[in-house]
User: Which sequence fits this backbone?
């Protein structure tokens, strides 16, 4: 299966592929992530002398602060910055060394000149900047009578604007699916508790 998609990116299969749909005429690849900002692990971002700086959880200060930085590094990769002698990156000053990280879409970006977009939605709603920027681009393309078209099926329950419709649909899907997972977990916990109570009776 993965061999079929090497023409777009080698080493990782994209979630969404639009051939020829990038801003410069190559292929557009989308990597979708629905992340929770509430995790048991906390990343202090101190890094190490051997591996350089690392991500830091900053959700208490900025939107997507617990999710975007780490996923951008995973998906898009990271260029080397600074020198090892500078010590690992200090997030409070912006100074220090960051080691090179290849990323899942290195081949698509640097060998095939494809456009790659991280479509990050947090489970509580909201779309991160890369996904929002891409949606605005597609909204403009849909209005372009020469290069684009709008094949969206609008209903009376959704806004007729391309951007509003798709933003609401994406965020709504993330929130409702997360709620469904929470409900499933509650049922599972109740079943475990009932089984434990029955066994001890």
Assistant:
């Amino acid at each position: 299966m993965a061999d079929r998609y090497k023409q777009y990116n080698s080493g990782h299969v994209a979630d969404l592929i639009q051939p020829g749909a990038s801003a410069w005429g190559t292929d557009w690849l989308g990597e979708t992530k629905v992340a929770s900002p509430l995790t048991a692990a906390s990343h202090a971002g101190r890094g190490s002398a051997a591996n350089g700086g690392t991500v830091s959880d900053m959700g208490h200060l900025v939107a997507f602060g617990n999710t975007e930085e780490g996923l951008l590094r995973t998906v898009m990769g990271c260029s080397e910055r600074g020198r090892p002698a500078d010590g690992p990156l200090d997030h409070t000053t912006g100074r220090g060394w960051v080691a090179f990280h290849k990323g899942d879409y290195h081949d698509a970006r640097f060998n095939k000149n494809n456009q790659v977009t991280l479509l990050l939605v947090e489970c509580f709603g909201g779309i991160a900047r890369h996904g929002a920027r891409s949606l605005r681009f597609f909204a403009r393309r849909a209005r372009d009578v020469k290069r684009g078209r709008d094949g969206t099926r609008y209903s009376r329950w959704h806004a007729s604007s391309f951007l509003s419709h798709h933003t609401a649909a994406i965020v709504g899907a993330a929130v409702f699916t997360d709620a469904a997972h929470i409900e499933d977990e509650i049922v599972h916990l109740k079943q475990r508790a009932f089984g434990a109570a029955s066994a001890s009776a």
Summary: The chain has four helices and three strands. Residues 2-200 form one domain. The chain has a mean pLDDT of 90. Residues 12 and 73 are 14 Å apart (CA to CA).
